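User: My advisor, Dr. K., asked me to get a structural model of this assembly before our group meeting. I'm new to this, so sorry if the format is off. These are the inputs:
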Amino acid sequence: MSRRASGLQAWAVQRLTAIYIGAFFVYLIGAVVLSPPADVGVWREQVGGGVASVAWLLFILALCWHAWIGIRDVVIDYIHPPVIRLGVLIAFGGGLVACLLWGVKIILLASGA
Amino acid sequence: MKFEIYRFHPEHDSKPRMQVYEVEIERGMMLRDALLAIQAKDETFTFRHSCGEGVCGSDGVNVNGVNMLACTTRVSDLKEPVQVRPLPGRPVIRDLVVDMSQFYKQYQSVDPWLQRNEPNPEREIRQSPEQRDKLDGLYECIMCACCSTSCPSFWWNPDKFLGPQALLTAARFVLDSRDQATEKRLDALEGPYKLFRCHTIMSCVEVCPKGLNPTRAIGHLKAMMLKDSV
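Assistant: The format is fine. Below is the predicted structure of the whole assembly, which you can bring to the meeting.
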């Protein structure tokens, strides 16, 4: 059985990441509404806390992965010439990797690592 | 009642045009009857039709932007002027007649027949009422192509995405207790194109003249693939 190829895997990952992103947003909005941070320092401490920083890192990873699958779907649907398709995928892929690294850097700085 | 009909004759026209016809409407008149009335006035006008009862699936057309069967559509339900065009996304052969080769090829590609590893029994293969119930909503398809030709994913990749009709048929055999090629059928649908171009837009569900739900059938296929893989 080999269903590792892009179809099923991408579809399943898109749904799993969506569940995590959705759950994280519920947690985030709940946290901000129930105990709003007094200032940016407190907010930074909250984000950089042990469990919270892992949750944030997972969120950034899930968001980028989810966005990548979505973008790739749109590109596969609408952009057919291989060279242009590859160029657009590289541009978006590079942008998402940059966002991912930037997000990771922010979280690591907040956690004091 | 005013009708605007898509006209194109590849030998005479360089591009398609909309031609206006006036048809006197009778009580209970269907769109197919109106098209026949137009044809009686103008013999050059061409469209496909056969049974007139929503069974053969020949007269799928695009009416005021929505795919439907001409024979099961009451003209009194339509907004005037009634714009009738060929099914979208398919090459036009003439007027409302489109080339369905690709659509049939996709249907053929899902091996639309029962497959068994064991030799066929001498008697019919029996099913429980529950097993038979699983085929409801799948076997009734009349292959009018209203669904596939209303699907944006099919418009963009008609050669690679199988489209709602072929996928509904694939589900019909995958869910059939008498079929023994489930694994092979699911494997054949893997990859980014054949099945997974479906983004649950659900245009297919909206237009199916038989009230079928190809999106749900596609969901079954995806769920079975996932279940089979974990």
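One thing worth pointing out at the meeting: Residues 6-110 of chain A form a domain with the 3 helical TM bundles of succinate and fumarate reductases fold (CATH 1.20.1300.10).

User: Perfect, thanks a lot.
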